[in-house]
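Dear support,

I submitted the protein below through the web form. The confirmation email said the job was done, but the results page showed an empty box. After a refresh the structure appeared. I'm attaching both so you can tell me whether what I see now is the final result or a partial one.
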Amino acid sequence: MERDIQRILLHHDQIAERVRQIGARIATMYDGREPALTIVPILSGSIIFLADLIRELPLKMKIALVQVSTYPGRSVEAGEPQTLIELTGDIRGRDVLIVDDILDSGRTLRKVREMLAAHEPASIRIAVLLRKPNKAPSDVQADFVGFDIEDEFVVGYGLDFGDHYRNYPHIGVLRPELIQ
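What the results page shows now:
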């Protein structure tokens, strides 16, 4: 995998420190709230971020799942989001935190937020590891952001290209000839 990476954008240690910081902010916001927080990760890209983030949350919580695909196959351009797995838990009257890997075009997060709002939660907030501020639409705001990045196609730490590189421990930019 290493030879496929043009450059490392964020090293694992930087990511770990930022996830700790985000976890502390989330813990402060939701500490003592009843009913307990429900976290809704958007699969599959958020799984690494989710795993590290929830270990930083000393809170009672539930996890409900959704799976949405926006980058089909080996595409580097976001398509129309397709729901692959509908919401797996009851969120009515609960505080919900959507966890996603990246806020890019906003289509996926907009779709998931609308899907969850129909279930009448008490609140919906969004945590993303990465945000592309030059592309993120104004109607989709993340409450917790790990890093703002330029508009580059990145992989690693859960983000993939053609279902590969999710296990790469850093966030890196692929060599251009691999994504042509």
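Response: this is the final, complete result; the empty box was a page-load delay. The CA atoms of residues 52 and 60 lie 16 Å apart.
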